[in-house]
Specification:
By secondary structure, this protein is mainly α. It contains 9 helices and 2 strands. Strand 1 and strand 2 form a beta hairpin.
Length: 231
Amino acid sequence: MAESDDKSSSMSASAASAALGGLMGSVSEKWNSSGASDAVARINANIPQGTKDMLSSASSKIQFRREHLRSPTIFFGLGEEKPFYLEKNPALLMPRLKHNVKFFYLNYAVLTGILFMLTVLVSPSALIGMALLAFAWMSVIKSTDSGEMRIKGITVSQKQAYVGMSVVSVVVLFYLLSHIFWWTMFTSGFLVGSHAALRDASMHKDEEDKVAMSGDLSLEEEQSAFLGDEV
């Protein structure tokens, strides 16, 4: 009986894997056939090299390293005797805030991103507006495939069309996401501030935060001399 259950579960897992693989293949095929990958490549090619270098330099300065994403065990202090408590001494509270912001910065960024995405998902108007904006971008990219487009007899170059769509996108996104942005910032600020103030993570440090010990302690020699004096 147990063997048959194992076989059925294995067959179910295989079927689910095959279905998932087929779905991913279908999505990839539709993505390629729609010309979206070519559109993304064209947009990337039209970005000035100076802008690419500036973005590359900025991203290299922001150290979003995977190892800096703390596990839930460390983030919530699971298993520790007293992971959260209110520090009433300002002289000790400020170093705690600085350490937690530096140590958990990537967790705080992920938390803010999750809150923003969840808020967008429960906002139908934002989803519809972003979908229409994406459709408008695809239309402009397709219309300027030859390098220009004509609107009521007026010739608009591809660069002018992209600049105009960028301005429209900023205005539309500001209108659609302004309340979501401020709600997310307020909520995440409250959660991040509470965690940074209450979490005692002084025992957790990165390698660069550890103080290297230097000097010759020679404990064995001192212990031997001390025992010799006692004898």
